[in-house]
Amino acid sequence: MSLSDLTGRWKAFSYGFLDPSAKRELRRKMIKAVSVPGCQMPYASREVPIARGWGTGGLQVTLTLVKPSSTVKVIDQGADDSVNAASIRRFLSRVSGASETWDTLDATLIQSRHRIPEEKLSRDQILILQVPNPEPLRGVEPNMSTARQMHADADYGRMWLQLYEQMVRSGRVMLGASYPAMVNGRHVMTPSPIPRWDVKKLHMAEHLTILSAGREKRIFAVPPYTRVEPLVFDDVPYKVEDHAHLTCARSGVTGYFMNEIPQEDGSAGYEVSDSHFGIKAIDARDGGTPTVGQTWYRNGELA
Amino acid sequence: MSALMKEAPRLVRTQPLMELSGLSKTYGNVRALDDVSARVYPGEVLGIVGESGSGKSTLLRMMNLEESPDAGRYRLDLPELPEDLFTLDRFERRMLRARRIGIVYQNPHLGLLMKHSSSGNVAERLLVAGERRFAVLREKAQVALEASEFPIPRMDAPPIELSGGMQQRVQLAKAIALEPAVLLLDEPTTGLDVSVQALVLDTLKRLQQERRITMVLVSHDLGVIRTMADRVMVMRHGRVVEEGLADQVFQDPQHAYTQQLVHAKL
């Protein structure tokens, strides 16, 4: 019996647009990122056929992880059917042979811009978040080298000071999206511009989350079952967006993150932000039997 | 100036709180410190005088662990600290600075975030030391600002909108917020007009009297040193040329350079 009998038949593993050396580098950086949760790893961001700032970081990670047996879902602020999401999803499918889906439960790779789906992700799924600005210290320390030194020293006093200043001036923390969070008790990360509603979904989650900024050339990760704790004062609780009581005008669901739709009379209507979750709700209301997964939030409260 | 300033020198204990020995530092061809040793005793004010370039600010930066010497040791007589503080890594130095060493710089821009609130500047020190309760941060910032005689209604004004004297009070509040073991003062009144200078010195003197804070005061102004210091160290060309009780040094200077300094002042 030879070694070749024991191993699978060798086959070139080069699909998914990126060249093998680019993929190798990205895989190594992802492993590093998983090994040191929340710590930003630099990488040589490649050119991909979308513009910088449109999800090149997320796309490179997805292209590295995708394989013909993958099922990819791409969402843009919760929507599967936006031009950007559809283009990226079709591109991924075309260059890798992977299947496409809108259903969170069916996907193995979920590339997302600014949202985490409402249905809980499982250990077999990987969430890839597109990140425009990976540096949480950017607002308090413009010098990148100094900021990296501050991460190395866990010197986050100025981040806390920023929260203090907002409390003093406004009586509350004014950060919406990109709320800084401490990962594994060590590194502060910006969880990409997901709303505060979604930040808590990362805490001790079953799935792996990889965050990638193509323009800024940084990758960081939240491995499964890792603590992700938003920076909050002990006596000022973390607050998510006040969406718990809002009802989706199309599907009728209540207690999930909503998009605000301006109405002609000046008022606001609301639609559930996770578009396919809304489709499932409409289907169920109309007598269908869609498979709806367990959700992170129930009745507007984190379950 | 207050009557407090006329008080007699305090008793000096035998065990020094701070001890620096054999410090040397060279920048290029310039010998900034040359085998400098210093001892600071609990509750005393050590004044360091000397002309520009004499090494006094370099020495103060080493006391604040911002810089390491080429040779020499630094010991603080506090529990759980190593025999030589220069062996601490950057993180440990930062934590020690936050918790046990306060500093007031001549230039408030070095010590303050000018666009953040004054209370926030004080709170930053507490935050670095690990305080995470907003109400406690507010309360402690207010107490420290009050102690440095800062007007509390303006506690959330940014230092950039304050006068030089007020900025120094914010620095002082930040420095004493955690009740440091030693307070380092680097020309704290330089650039202030005489009346404001007197008020800041009054505040320092009162704090020293009430809290028995150990202070190291660096200044080229002999009047300030004479007002504040119990003991004086005279530096020139990176060396200590004379050291002794303040009255002794000022009334009976031994070294020619000290005599020159004292007479120039008088």
Automatic annotation (TrEMBL), chain A:
InterPro entries: PhnJ (IPR010306). One of its GO terms (biological process) is organic phosphonate catabolic process. The keyword Plastid does not apply. GO terms for molecular function: 4 iron, 4 sulfur cluster binding; alpha-D-ribose 1-methylphosphonate 5-phosphate C-P-lyase activity; metal ion binding. Keywords: 4Fe-4S, Iron, Iron-sulfur, Lyase, Metal-binding, S-adenosyl-L-methionine. It comes from the Bacteria. It is an enzyme of class 4 (lyase). It catalyses: alpha-D-ribose 1-methylphosphonate 5-phosphate + AH2 + S-adenosyl-L-methionine = alpha-D-ribose 1,2-cyclic phosphate 5-phosphate + methane + 5'-deoxyadenosine + L-methionine + A + H(+). Its EC number is 4.7.1.1. Catalyzes the breakage of the C-P bond in alpha-D-ribose 1-methylphosphonate 5-phosphate (PRPn) forming alpha-D-ribose. Belongs to the PhnJ family. This is Alpha-D-ribose 1-methylphosphonate 5-phosphate C-P lyase. The lineage of its organism: Bacteria, Pseudomonadati, Pseudomonadota, Alphaproteobacteria, Rhodobacterales.
UniProtKB/TrEMBL annotation, chain B:
GO terms for molecular function: ATP binding; ATP hydrolysis activity; lyase activity. Gene3D superfamilies: P-loop containing nucleotide triphosphate hydrolases (3.40.50.300). Keywords: ATP-binding, Lyase, Nucleotide-binding. Residues 18-262 form the ABC transporter domain. It holds the Pfam family ABC_tran. InterPro entries: AAA+_ATPase, ABC_transporter-like_ATP-bd, ABC_transporter-like_CS, P-loop_NTPase, PhnK. GO terms for biological process: organic phosphonate catabolic process. PROSITE patterns: ABC_TRANSPORTER_1, ABC_TRANSPORTER_2. The keyword Lyase applies. PANTHER family: PHOSPHONATES UTILIZATION ATP-BINDING PROTEIN PHNK-RELATED (PTHR42764:SF1). This is Phosphonate C-P lyase system protein PhnK. It comes from Pseudooceanicola antarcticus.
